[in-house]
């Protein structure tokens, strides 16, 4: 018989693919038909034509979005046939002998499968993780046969809807990687208004619980369980776009719009402020929009403080930016007082994660080197507020670290931050630096160095001392007081740090509460270890083999000391008696070094 599976092929081709995938018999027959040489040439062409027909491919694409219905019954294991059907469906479309013809059907001029794909994605309905993984595998197989640009070009006016539908599904990490592939491969002109809805949608996804002035889709109907991964992976997605920064691509277009478009920039800043006032919520305890804002602020530098680094006592200091600030920075500077006000923590409130994010946000604020930004910091006495927070929360080590970094960035000429040396535009005549050289600030730092609980005042004092060595314009009595402190207390601190590492906050108390082993116990432990090593070196099977029920001299009621002497090492415990006998037999061979 030349074609033993011919009748199977005829039965398959006469049944709709949706019904075929609903039967276990089809999965077995499909497995047989996929074996090389199992079908005759005629049968292979017959079944290939069936699978690659326009209607069949359209049905397959629709089935990729059908969530598997896993049935749980009382006291019975769940059935996973629906999951197996989804797996075999994506395997049929991406990795079977019939996959090339199925994928080619998606690339024709008019394709029901391609229309079904954009229709399903345009519903903005979250996919299950298994469905998302299946869709991504099919898309990756498709893009191995053609480029993303070619495939998206087939959609013409619907290409934006296709991409927006994919963006909504990035709550699944695998789809996020697929969306990044689109952004890296698709070319986009900065003046192209076709894609202008995409940045607005990203802001909706990064602020899923905030009412924005615009709404590109109804996110309120999305479940809270999906809003969190959608927000999380949207944040990761935008961060990846910032880092890749490929010119003339859709990814660069998105980042450019968020930083230069006035409406988008204001929406991002306002959304972060709303987050900070609402946190913590049922969805999150930190602002993911704040992470995006922080990263995007670091993309731009002004540098106009360079005009204020000489002695200008006879001229009035300018307080407006003399450089250039993009739309995002302009919107942020206008709301910077609102951000700084959040650092004024009421007495009945505690320090939270959102305040840590605020401190991290001040790092690009200092690095932008803009006199208008520095003026806001000076008006609100921001650095005095930071010192007050350190003094108020002596056990908040993460707060202390962040505050130290801010003082180091502001006061030192070549600070080392995040593993690299940074060059600063500030000098001893810098207005922001000089605003810190006041008696109240230096007194707080000097008194803080005497604290046994808070060590970050010592780091801050080192940064102040580096600046004071350059003879900045300070009153003589204040300079004398600092010099007396630096030549006594600060020198002692340097000497202590040179001899030993500083003890982290709270570690000394922790060590005092846990008594360490005595000298006798340490010696006893060392002698036991030496005995154990000596037994291992001798290689005697009676000592290498662990105690068993038939080993004489071992009783279940034996004393702890007796069982301790007969216990085996962790390495010996890995082997049973038969394996240990083989080890002994091998080591007993002549020429083997024991």
Automatic annotation (TrEMBL):
The organism sits in which domain of life? Answer: Eukaryota
**Protein name, entry field:** Uncharacterized protein
Biased segments, Polar residues type: 502-516, 545-571
Q: Where is the composition biased (Basic and acidic residues)?
A: 527-540
Region entry Disordered, spans: 501-571
Per the UniProt entry, what species is this protein from, by scientific name? Aphanomyces euteiches
């Amino acid at each position: 018989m030349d074609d033993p599976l011919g009748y199977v092929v005829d039965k398959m081709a006469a049944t709709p693919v949706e019904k075929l995938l609903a039967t276990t018999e089809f999965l077995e027959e499909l497995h047989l038909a996929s074996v090389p040489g199992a079908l005759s040439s005629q049968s292979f062409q017959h079944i290939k034509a069936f699978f690659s027909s326009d209607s069949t491919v359209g049905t397959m694409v629709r089935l990729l979005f059908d969530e598997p219905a896993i049935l749980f019954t009382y006291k019975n294991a769940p059935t996973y046939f629906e999951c197996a059907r989804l797996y075999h469906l994506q395997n049929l479309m991406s990795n079977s002998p019939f996959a090339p013809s199925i994928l080619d059907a998606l690339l024709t001029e008019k394709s029901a499968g391609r229309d079904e794909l954009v229709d399903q994605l345009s519903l903005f309905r979250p996919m299950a993780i298994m469905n998302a993984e299946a869709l991504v595998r099919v898309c990756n197989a498709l893009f191995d046969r053609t480029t993303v640009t070619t495939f998206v070009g087939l959609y013409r006016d619907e290409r934006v809807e296709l991409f927006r539908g994919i963006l909504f599904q990035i709550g699944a990490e695998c789809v996020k990687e697929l969306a990044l592939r689109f952004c890296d491969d698709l070319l986009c002109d900065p003046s192209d208004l076709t894609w202008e809805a995409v940045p607005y949608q990203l802001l909706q996804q990064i602020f899923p619980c905030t009412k924005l002035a615009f709404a590109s889709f109804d996110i309120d109907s999305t479940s809270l369980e999906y809003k969190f991964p959608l927000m999380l992976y949207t944040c990761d997605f935008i961060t990846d776009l910032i880092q890749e920064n490929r010119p003339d691509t859709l990814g660069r277009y998105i980042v450019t719009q968020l930083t230069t478009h006035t409406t988008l920039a204001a929406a991002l800043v306002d959304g972060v402020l709303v987050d900070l006032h609402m946190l913590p919520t049922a969805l999150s305890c930190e602002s993911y929009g704040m992470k995006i804002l922080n990263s995007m602020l670091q993309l731009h530098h002004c540098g106009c403080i360079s005009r204020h680094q000489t002695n200008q006592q006879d001229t009035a200091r300018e307080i407006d930016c003399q450089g250039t600030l993009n739309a995002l920075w302009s919107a942020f500077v206008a709301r910077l007082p609102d951000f700084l006000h959040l650092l004024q923590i009421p007495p009945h409130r505690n320090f939270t994660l959102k305040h840590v994010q605020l401190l991290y946000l001040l790092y690009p604020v200092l690095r932008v080197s803009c006199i208008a930004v520095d003026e806001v910091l000076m008006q609100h006495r921001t650095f005095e507020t930071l010192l007050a927070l350190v003094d108020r929360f002596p056990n908040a080590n993460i707060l202390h670290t962040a505050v130290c970094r801010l003082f180091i960035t502001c006061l030192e000429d070549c600070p080392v931050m995040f593993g690299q040396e940074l060059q600063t535009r500030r000098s001893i005549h810098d207005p922001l630096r000089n605003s810190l050289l006041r008696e109240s600030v230096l007194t707080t730092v000097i008194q803080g160095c005497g604290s046994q609980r808070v060590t970050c005042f010592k780091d801050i004092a080192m940064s102040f001392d580096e600046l004071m060595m350059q003879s900045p314009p300070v009153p003589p009595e204040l300079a004398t007081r600092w010099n007396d402190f630096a030549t006594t207390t600060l020198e002692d601190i340097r000497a202590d740090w040179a001899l030993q590492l500083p003890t982290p906050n709270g570690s000394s108390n922790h060590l005092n509460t846990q008594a360490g082993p005595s000298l006798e116990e340490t010696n006893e432990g060392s002698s036991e270890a030496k005995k154990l090593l000596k037994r291992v070196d001798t290689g005697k099977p009676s000592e290498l083999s662990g105690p068993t029920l038939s080993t004489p001299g071992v009783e279940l009621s034996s004393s702890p000391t007796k069982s301790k002497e007969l216990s085996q090492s962790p390495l010996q415990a890995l082997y049973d008696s038969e394996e240990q006998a083989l080890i002994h037999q091998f080591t007993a061979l002549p020429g083997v070094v024991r």
